[in-house]
Amino acid sequence: MELRANVPDGPIEQKWDRHRVELKLVNPANKRKYDVIVVGSGLAGASAAATLGELGYNVRCFCFQDSARRAHSIAAQGGINAAKNYQNDGDSVFRLFYDTIKGGDFRSREANVYRLAQISVNIIDQCVAQGVPFAREYGGLLANRSFGGAQVSRTFYARGQTGQQLLLGAYQALSRQIAAGKVAMYPRTEMLDVIAIDGRARGIVVRDLVTGKVSSHVAHAVVLASGGYANVYYLSTNAKGCNVTATWRAYKRGAAFANPCFTQIHPTCIPHSGDYQSKLTLMSESLRNDGRIWVPQRAGDTRPPGEIPDAERDYYLERIYPSFGNLAPRDISSRRAKELVDAGHGVGPLKNGVYLDFRDPIARLGRGEIAERYGNLFEMYERITGENPYEVPMRIYPAPHYVMGGLWVDYNLMTTVSGLFVIGEANFSDHGANRLGASALMQGLADGYFVLPYTIGDYLAGQRFDQVDDRHAACRDTEREVGQRVNRLLSAKGSRTVDGVHRELGALLREKCGMARNAAGLQEALRTIPELRERFWREVRVTGSGAEFNQELEKAGRVADFLEFGELMCQDALQREESCGGHFREEYQTPDGEALRDDERFAYVAAWEYAGAGNPARLNREPLTFESVHLTQRSYQ
Amino acid sequence: MNLVLHVWRQAGPKLPGRFERYEARNVNEHMSFLEMLDVVNQGLLQAGHDPIAFEHDCREGICGSCGFVINGSPHGPLGDTTVCQLHLRHFQNGDELWIEPWRAKAFPVVKDLVVDRNAFDRIIQAGGYISVRTGSAPDANAIPVRKENAERAMDAAACIGCGACVAACPNGSAMLFTAAKVAHLALLPQGQPERLQRVLGMVEQMDQDGFGNCTNHGACEAACPKGISIDFIAQLNRDWVRAALSYAPHEAAEGAI
Fold this sequence. Notes:
The complex is a heterodimer.
Chain A: H1 15-22, H2 28-31, E1 35-39, H3 43-55, E2 58-62, E3 80-81, H4 93-103, H5 110-130, E4 155-156, H6 162-179, E5 183-186, E6 189-197, E7 200-208, E8 214-218, E9 221-224, H7 245-252, E10 257-258, E11 263-269, E12 292-296, E13 313-314, H8 316-320, H9 330-345, E14 354-357, H10 359-365, H11 367-385, E15 394-403, E16 406-407, E17 420-422, H12 440-461, H13 473-491, H14 498-512, H15 519-539, H16 551-575, H17 599-602, E18 604-609, E19 618-623
Parallel strand pairs in A: 1-2, 1-9, 2-5, 9-17
Antiparallel strand pairs in A: 3-4, 6-7, 7-8, 10-16, 10-18, 11-15, 12-13, 12-14, 14-15, 18-19
Helix pairs in contact in A: 3-6, 3-12, 4-5, 5-12, 10-11, 14-15, 14-16, 15-16
Chain B: E1 3-10, E2 17-24, H1 33-46, E3 69-70, E4 73-74, E5 96-100, E6 109-111, E7 114-115, H2 118-125, H3 147-157, H4 164-168, H5 175-186, H6 195-208, H7 219-223, H8 231-246
Parallel strand pairs in B: 1-5
Antiparallel strand pairs in B: 1-2, 3-4, 3-5, 6-7
């Protein structure tokens, strides 16, 4: 497999502008002759579908939820970065680019990250024009706050509901195109395969989740915006429906899967409280702007937090990272919390958390000011735990939250399958080995509003297409395969529930391929996962039929894919014999426990190629070269 | 703790439904209501029965997927809370609970507790947006917005589209949902050019989809998990009257709106 990144020539700050001039255009009158499929309606999918509709393409957009507005982007709390420099604190496109590439531990593609930083400013303009009610100052201009991994204040926000408001902006733009007849929306419809004809993606096979009908949709290009796979861990902050199915099916049709082991464990989530736990809840990282993180100095200290004097508290992030303090990046903050909990300093009934304390900021700023900044987050915390964070410190612990890995794409966001594009969290491109806070929303909207709409035109203008409809043999064959899989899930009639197997897979991966990994553990996981997968197919019990609304069947299909994907994740983690960002191999660390990168051997993107059932995936490498930044060890001290 | 559940079971939209009795045994007060239903469902699956279908996704109270009626209250007894964020510590051991889907003409049942809320999407499609093409926006700080207006717009925009307001309303009206979007956009300068046709279009669509009229019961506000204020309905009514009296599609408006 050849990996051509197609990065344009020229100085980094001119690459995107030059490229846009060089991209082929589709004549406005011809755009309506092209059909484009968009899978997913989150920030990336909705913004892409709306923008492609505005441009004149015929768009069909699919989501498994009951409405496009439910996509998991809606749950993003904290904010969205943009290099506006409205605070006059020294921000610039280059600084945002540099922070992002350094935050990603130099494992992302430089040109893509620069473009992202450039486009960030247009996103804010676009969203404000749509009516997104960002926070404002008394003069009526936009307010900002700071976020982890940055020393400037560049994050725009709408209370603790930034993702919701940005998504509703994109959803409303999408709704306008639906009303105009340029986008056809298919809610409660799950993509289960890609249709490849003559080496190009020409459509998808979907299952109607209400009637169970399996059918084909044919188009000239397919865009996947299906989000990330953090639910492979079972317990994560992702919505219950988030899954790897769309990208995994595409992988099995020839799209390379890049850096699957790069997962982000977010430091500020509510610790789990029992075996029944169905998901974990994030508390926005913005809380770290004012809250102070600590554990008791003495391991096993069971005194209530209020009775532990300051001298016996370890404000460990402030101690280890004096210049970034509680705003140290996510991967580092998570790892330090894990070490202290493992060493017996954990707090709470299960000893599985650290404190995030607002005592001092409340004393300094007053309860009213803290309520204005974080009121809704405090309420959410109290609703879940029954504890009042104005009175007692919050308890937090890291949880799987986001994935940097995803389908490999070139500079044009096209995979190794012609005509198959991937945007948002589903691709791998911009965050390297660790994503900084408030960057996911930025990337989803950059891809959807401002990158894909240009690059897809270049692809379409350069192709000749035969007339194809859903009676084509490739459609029939793919539909048949999808139908067989559904029937196989229903016919096992075993004794184990889908959730039971998923929990087992998740626990294994959290232990062996979570915040810290080592070769022995990964090898063990690689032995265990195939056994678990085999047991799943033999023992799973899915009730009901395929011809009805059947939530158990939906879950079963997604878990079947996680059981294959989990293996690739461990394989990737095993081959990467270095530590970088969220990928921490215990064998490779500095004397003070920081990630030890190996740029000589591992400054590449690991792009895995499907080699057929039963064969190990093939590793392809895209070397990463850096012309505009100097590779350094990340230091936040 | 132990709970007795009477859950509405209905195999499909046109089929008859009925309450079935289940027992949730040894459940934990820290569980969310949906986690309790997960436990009941695992038991049903182990016994080879169809699990209870209910809608859910983020389980953080923001996606708006979840929602059903518990003992007559949409999203259950606790104020300002979606059912996914409702924990069992708010119930007593031995409580008997009747659980049923949103009941409204415009929300047909899909299965058990799952209803079809596409009518809400159609209301937004009828004008719940600002027409701005990607790429055509001015600089974000070119148009200052009074902080109070931005905050008020955000209060309205916090709606999650769950449908509890419709389920609570004796008329099955979608006025609170519609008013929240109308007010959000009407409070911002960006929303002014389309303000009048927006309110007319959205209200018309609401009527077409079979939602009832608003008769100021206020049940919607009480049931809303996001605390959306009924004041927005008053604002919608003012805008609608003004639009109905003055909006002429092909004439320039007089002065600034």
